[in-house]
Amino acid sequence: MAQETRWGRFRRSEAASGYLLVSPTAAYAILLLAAPLAMIILYSVFRDGYLTVIPAFTFDNYVETWSSPIYRSVMIRSLSVSMAVTLVTVLLAYPVAYFVSFHVDPSRKSLWLFLITIPFWTSYLIRVFLWKVILGYNGVVNSALMSIGVIDEPLTWINYNIQAFVVTLAHAYAPFAILPIFVAMEKIDRSLLEAGQDLGESRLMTFWRVTLPLSMAGVVAAVLIVFIPVIGDYVTPNLIGGGKIPMIANMIENLMLVRDNKPLGSAIAVSAMLIVTVVSLIFVFLNRRFLGGTK
Amino acid sequence: MAAPGARPAQTMIEFRDVHKYYGDYHALRGITATIRAGEFFSLLGPSGCGKTTLLRTIAGFEGISSGVVLIDGKDVAAVPANKRPTNMVFQSYAIFPHLTVEQNVGFGLRREGLSKEALAARVAEALEMVGLKGYGARAAHALSGGQRQRVALARALILKPKVLLLDEPLSALDKKMREQMQVELIRLQRQVGITFILVTHDQEEALVMSDRIAVMFEGEIAQLADPETLYRRPNSKKVADFIGTMNFLPASILSESDGQIEVEAKGFGRVTLAADQAPGAATGGEAMVGFRPETLTILFDGQQATDRETMATIEEVVYYGDMTYYDVKLDGMDSATRISMRNVFGRPVLDIGTRTRIAWSPGALVLFR
C-alpha cells in the first residue's frame, strides 16, 4: 500500500471541506477588508509629498494626529456624540424591549418585532435626510410651529447642531438596540420573577434585583452595536450638520480627498480605530462578566 | 405522620368553594378543603387536573374567579404574592443565575435589614439545614439538579414561612436522588414544623411523604384522606385506578341494612361487607367489588386460609425478583385478576396453567356502586 501523502490526507479531511466552504467569504474579506486596511496602515507611516505619497518611513503623521488640537477636538466630539447617541438609544430602547418581551401576547411578538424593523425599509440616507427636512430652518417643525403662532421666527437650536445629530442617529439605530435587549429578556425564565415576588419583593424591586441584571448582557451588546458605527458616522454630520460640525469620518474624508494628505488621513483613521477597539474591549470585558453568571 | 397526643390541629389553609376560569376553561370546580397547620399535605393528580393552579392560588400567583382562600384564618384575596406568609419551591427551582448560592439563599432577607454578619450566619444555618454547608460562594450555574433543589428549599425556609409550597420539586431528579430527597423532605418538615403542601403526579411519592392527600381530577377533589385510607378504601374506581393497582369484579347488591351490605360478587360468591367498605357515593353505575393484588394469597401445600378459600388457574407469571405477579382466573370468572406475591426463599415460582388454592378475605373488598 502506497504511503499516503500529507496533502492527500488533508484533501479528504473535514477541515478541508470547511476551508472550501469559507473560502469565497474569506477571499472577499481579504480583498475588501484586510487589503485596504493594510494599505491604510502602510500609508499612515509614509511621508506626504502633496498629491503623492513618498514611501519613506515616519511617525510624524501620528505625532500630528495626537498633538494637534483640531484633530483631538474632532475625535472628542465624535466620542461624545457617540456616547450621547448610545445613551439615548439604549434608554429609549430598553422600555420598548421590556414591553414587547413581558407585556405583549406571545403570539403577537413576531408582529411587534416586524413593526420595529419597519424603519429599515427606507434607506439610511433617506432617513437621515428626512430628519433634515423635519428639523431644518424651514423644516416641518419650524413651519408647523410658526403657522400655529407658537413662534415668530424659526428655531435655530433644533438644527445644524449636536442635538440634531443625537436625535437623527438615535432614531436610526433604535432597532439595533431593541433587538439584543429583547433577546436577553426573552431568555429570562419567568419563574424567576415569580420567585422574586414569592421571596417578598415588590414588582419594582424584583425588576431591579432580577430582570435588570439578567438583561444587562443585552444592554451591553446594544451599547456596542450602537456605539461603534456611530463613532464613524459620516452621513449625519454632513447632512444634518451642514458640514460645519465635522466628526472624525468627515475629517478623514477631508484629508484624504480634499487636501489629498493620505498619510495623515490614514494615521487619524488608524488612531480612531484603536480608540474604538479599546472602548469595545472594555464593553466586551463587561459583557463577559455579566454572561459569566448566566451560563 | 402527626405525633400521637398532639394538640388538635389548627386550620392553616381553607378553601371555600373555589372556582377558577381561564376564559371558558373551568380549571378549578368548587374546591372546598382545609389543610391543617404542621401537616405534610399533597395535591395528587394527573397533569391538567388543576393541582398546580390550586397551589398557585395559595402563593398568590393566580387569582380565583369565585370562592374564598384563607391562610391562617385571613382572607388573602387582596394580599399580593410578596405579602403572603408562604414560600414556594418552583418546579424549575428558579435559582437566580446571576447570583451565588449565598446570595440566592439570602435574597428574601434584604428587607429584614440584618447586619452583614447576622445575614451570613442565617444563610450558613439555612445551608447547613439542607446539607449544603460550605457551598455558599458557588455560582448558581455550577450546581447539580439536587443541589439546586436544596438551594431552593433553603431560600424558602430561611424566611420561616407559615406554609411551604412545593411544585413537583422532585420530578426533575433521577430515581435514586428522588427517593433520597423524599426522605430528606420528610425529615426537614418534622424538624421545622412548617405546613408543607406538595404538588405531585406520582402516587407513590404522595403515599410515602404525606400526612394527608387530596386526589384531584378535572378541577375537583375526588377524595381527601390519609394515605392508608386512600389506598385501602378509595371512594371511586377512578381513585382506585390512579393509586396503585386494583382488580375489579362485577357484583350485584342483594340487600343493605344496619351497616351491612350483602353482595354477590363474581368469583367470590356471596359476601357481607361492612358499611366502610363502600366509601363512595352511589353513582347509579354498575356495581363492582375491587381488591388490591396483595390481598389475595396463593396457598402452598400445607398452608391454611385464615378466612376464605377459592380455586384458580394461573394464566400469566411476571417475575420481579422480590415479587412475582400472577394473573389468575378465579373459578367462575371469565377474565383474569392480578395477584402479587412476595417471593420467599425455598418457595417455587409457579408455572402457567397450575391449579392452585387462593386465600382471600371479604374485609379486603371495596364496593363501588
From TrEMBL, chain A:
Domain (ABC transmembrane type-1): residue spans on this chain: 75-285
The way it spans or sits in the membrane comes to: Multi-pass membrane protein
The entry's cellular-component GO terms read: plasma membrane
GO BP term, pick one: transmembrane transport
Question: Which Pfam families did the record assign?
Answer: BPD_transp_1
Membrane-spanning residues where?
21-46, 74-99, 111-130, 162-185, 206-231, 264-286
- Give the keywords, sorted: Cell membrane, Membrane, Transmembrane, Transmembrane helix, Transport
Enumerate the subcellular locations listed in this protein's record, separating them with semicolons: Cell membrane
Domain of life (superkingdom): Bacteria
Q: Which Gene3D superfamilies match?
A: MetI-like
Q: Which InterPro entries match?
A: MetI-like (IPR000515), MetI-like_sf (IPR035906)
Keyword Transport annotated: yes
Principal location listed in the UniProt entry:
membrane
CDD domains in the record = TM_PBP2 (cd06261)
UniProt record similarity statement: Belongs to the binding-protein-dependent transport system permease family. CysTW subfamily.
Q: What is this protein called?
A: ABC transporter permease
